[in-house]
């Protein structure tokens, strides 16, 4: 029963994540489709031919709609950064769950990037605009990779591990205590030398070796359990499955710690790209304001 509940919880969590991702993709597709529907004929024109287009005074980066795209997109990007502040106060659940904030972080980042792309009218005519676009691209790319790594990260299920040991005790009294001693004697997950992405990547072979050692030692401890158990022949199959699950669960803490280290170091790369983007966007805004591109506040 505990195993079924645990697996049902994992499946439910995966379904929720899939639904959120699907809704995010659909909304972004609708937003992109609407913006293309509004100005596709303008965007496909050559840069020099756009001057004669009827939408030139509307959709160009410095005009009312095109400039508005940039303002709304920038607002979403800066709203997106509130997730970093939320992580600093992760213990305060009254501010909302971290998963909800992560979903908002992903959506605002992608939606803001789409709007900024349309604000630029798909042309980069100044060094500042080019640098801003490049940093934004790396922020989005590193964020998407981080999201993918986060979805793949395994989670150690210690309650299920203890439940499985209790089930083994039912078939072979004292087996659970022996296996706990085996796990306690195993070395903890290796720590990277430094909290950098390179050091985390270099530690992966060590983590893989530790997972293999954990599996081998647990399998050795369980090797005679099925053969010498008093379980009826009909229940030997489920007992073997239980043993396989115990071996897998015993190795999960190392994999979980390794994934956490990789995510932590990857987030530092993402934050660095975000810092460059904030600086470039700020410079872009100041230069535009000084040159008179002040949207509805222009003289």
Features:
299 residues; mainly alpha; 2 domains; elongated
**How would you describe the shape?**
elongated
Structural class: mainly alpha
User: What is the number of independent domains?
Assistant: 2
Element pattern in H and E: HHHHHHHHHHH
Care to give the gist of this entry?
Helix content is 76%, strand content 0%. With 299 residues, it is an all-alpha fold. It folds into 2 domains: 14-154 and 270-297, no CATH class; 160-263, no CATH class.
What does this structure look like?
It is built from 11 helices and no strands. Helix 4 (82-88) packs antiparallel against helix 5 (98-119) and helix 9 runs antiparallel to helix 11 (236-290). It starts with a helix and ends in a 9-residue tail after the last helix. It is 76% helix and 0% strand. With 299 residues, the protein is mainly α. The radius of gyration is 27 Å and the shape is elongated. The mean pLDDT is 85. It folds into 2 domains: 14-154 and 270-297, no CATH class; 160-263, no CATH class.
């Amino acid at each position: 029963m505990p195993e079924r509940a645990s697996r049902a919880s994992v499946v439910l969590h995966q379904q929720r994540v899939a639904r959120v991702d699907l809704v995010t993709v659909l909304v972004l597709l609708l937003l992109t489709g609407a913006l293309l529907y509004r100005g596709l004929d303008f965007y496909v024109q050559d840069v020099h031919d756009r001057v004669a287009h009827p939408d030139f005074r509307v959709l160009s980066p410095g005009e009312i709609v095109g400039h508005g795209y940039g303002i709304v997109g920038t607002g979403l990007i800066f709203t997106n950064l509130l997730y970093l502040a939320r992580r600093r106060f992760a213990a305060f659940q009254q501010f909302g769950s971290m998963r909800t904030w992560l979903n908002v972080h992903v959506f605002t980042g992608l939606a803001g990037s789409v709007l900024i792309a349309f604000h630029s009218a798909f042309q980069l005519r100044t060094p500042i605009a080019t640098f801003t676009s490049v940093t934004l691209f790396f922020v989005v790319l590193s964020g998407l990779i981080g999201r993918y790594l986060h979805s793949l990260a395994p989670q150690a299920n210690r309650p299920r591990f203890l439940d499985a040991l209790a089930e083994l005790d039912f078939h072979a009294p004292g087996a659970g205590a022996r296996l706990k001693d085996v796990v306690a004697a195993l070395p903890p997950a290796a720590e990277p030398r430094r909290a950098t992405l390179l050091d985390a990547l270099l530690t992966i072979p060590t983590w893989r070796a530790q997972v293999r050692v954990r599996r081998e030692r647990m399998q050795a401890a369980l090797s005679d359990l099925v053969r010498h158990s008093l379980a009826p022949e009909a229940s030997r199959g489920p007992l073997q499955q239980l043993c396989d699950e115990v071996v897998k669960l015993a190795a999960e803490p190392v994999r979980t710690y390794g994934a956490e280290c990789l995510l932590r170091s990857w987030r530092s790369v993402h934050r660095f790209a975000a810092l460059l983007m904030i600086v470039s966007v700020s410079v872009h805004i100041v230069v535009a304001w000084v040159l008179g591109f002040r949207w509805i506040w222009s003289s």
